[in-house]
Amino acid sequence: MPNTKEFDNTVNIGIESSPLDLPVITGTYDEKGIDISKLLAKTGHVTLDIGFKNTGSTTSTITYIDGDKGVLEHRGYRIEDLASEASFLEVCFLLLKEHLPKRAELDEFVGSVQDYITPPAGIKAILDAMPDDTHPMGMLSAIFASLSGFYPESLDSWTSEEVRWRTIYRLLGHMPGICAYIHRRKANLEYIDPNPSLGYVENFLYMMSGKVDPVVADALDTLLILHADHEQNCSASTVRFVGSSQVNLFASISAGNSALWGPLHGGANQAVLEMLEAIKNDGGDTDKYLDKAKDKNDPFRLMGFGHRVYKNHDPRAKVIKRYADVVLDKLEVEDPVLSIAKGLERAALNDPYFSDRKLFPNVDFYSGIIYRALGIPVDMFTVMFALGRLPGWIAQWKEMREGNEPIGRPRQIYTGHDTRPYIPIGDR
Ligand code: CMC
């Protein structure tokens, strides 16, 4: 059971020699947060924490991470157990409905998602109108935002629980088709419509390629679970932040998806594979790239390494690494970049630069190698991340709205010019 003890303690800080008591909130695992919501009113001071390295933006019951121990849990269930035992839609249910479903509950949930497996036909026309070299993540953000046009009732979905859930089911149901359409559009292939007799992941594979390999479907299901939520990361925070203006769910998800696209976040999976390919084409000299990553005058970073929260092994990366061997084996794929990745990881973990800074492989380090073995093109990797992360974004949005959180609006410390007279353009 969540065990949030509200404000059972205070800390005393001194500001300009005046003592001030601030309440402390304690989480389920005894993590402590100082509540500064009255700080400005009481002291005239704000806090400054660029990049939010020390700032909790909310309380949440969805996901717990212990970055020092390498622990990840959703609603109290360990990611390793979910990855090996549950299905992706079961994890979606868990994130959105807060408990593991009984069989009948899961069947009903799956049915509600399946009701919406066919995206609106107009989406194909929107994709067709986009330039050929549009990045798939740009396409996906545009499509998410366009859904509010196809479903105007979503504009005020918060007013009715029925419309809210219909909007959620539509989003989950349409997502595999949207992602597959994006792939087919990029590859200049005919669109394949969904097959209602197939399951969620099988249908996605069918719409991608016209065929379903059970080994591939099983692998993909696990990968999606591993990506399903990760508490207040850049994209989830964006979904909550944008959604706090009370804009509709589709627009909030579109914004979160754009945050995911960046190479420091979900875009890292594409960047990792491009980096491994570059190392391979450069003769496989991993030391050269480690040196580049350590050189402070070189902007190069070891992609797929490091994490804001994990200062130990990312538990998702551990599962994915094991999985990469199994999947490549089962599919009888030999990929030379897998051994480059393993060599790079070994060398980095033995290098004081990385160990001193507690930089370990993250979820993106090995995922791309599996996606490639499954036949998914590199520029679609971050779309695959979004396919997995969608339930987490929706759960974060829902929790934020249910908690009636105020609009996100940080303060700043202004460091620009002080007041000066306007000079007409001819006199400057
Ligand atoms: N390669 C080389 N040096 C690194 C790396 C890296 N990948 N990551 C961090 N560092 C160094 C950094 O230069 C800094 O060194 P110093 O203390 O000497 O200045 C130190 O480690 C701390 O790094 P930071 O940038 O302050 O840490 P952060 O918490 O702001 O950044 C990160 C976290 C994930 C953005 C960063 O580790 C990174 O850029 N990694 C590569 C991109 C990547 O793999 N992103 C995926 C993250 S996990 C999945 C997801 O979020 O989607």
Could you walk me through the main structural features you see in this protein, from its secondary elements to its overall organization?
The chain is globular. It has 428 residues and is mostly helical. A hairpin with a 5-residue loop joins strand 2 and strand 3 (32-34). The longest helix has 26 residues, at 161-186. The model has no long low-confidence stretch (mean pLDDT 94). The relative contact order is 0.12. The protein contains 18 helices and 6 strands. Strands 1-2-3 form a 3-stranded antiparallel β-sheet, with no helix packed on it. Strands 4-5-6 form a 3-stranded antiparallel β-sheet. It starts with a strand and ends in a 26-residue tail after the last helix.
Summarize the structure.
This protein is mainly α. The chain contains 18 helices and six strands.
